[in-house]
Amino acid sequence: MSLTLRPVQTRTHPPTSYENALADELESIYGRGVHDLTGVVAALNDGGVRPPTGAEWTEESFTAELARLGNAEEARP
């Protein structure tokens, strides 16, 4: 049997434009060497991607949003 790696094999739907924008922003932040939670949240607030509520990111809202997006059954609006 031949095994093929498909990194998106657990997706239940194509990513939304919000999910793509958040992923792009996080890639950029991590690429600048920011890896701590406080720094990531600050960089997100300096950028253009806001949480679904439109408010500023907090450490709590960021970790809650990642948990929500990581749960395939609840991530889809």
Q: How would you concisely characterize the structure shown here?
A:
Helix content is 53%, strand content 0%. The chain has four helices and no strands.
Describe this structure in words.
Helices cover 53% and strands 0% of the residues. It has one domain (17-75). By secondary structure, the chain is mostly helical.
How many domains is the backbone divided into? 1
Which regions are unreliable across 5 or more consecutive residues at pLDDT < 50?
none
Largest sheet: none
Strand content: under 5%
Question: What is the number of strand segments?
Answer: 0
Keywords:
77 residues, mainly alpha, 4 helices, 0% strand
Which helices and strands, and how do they pair?
Blueprint: H1 17-31, H2 37-46, H3 59-70, H4 72-75
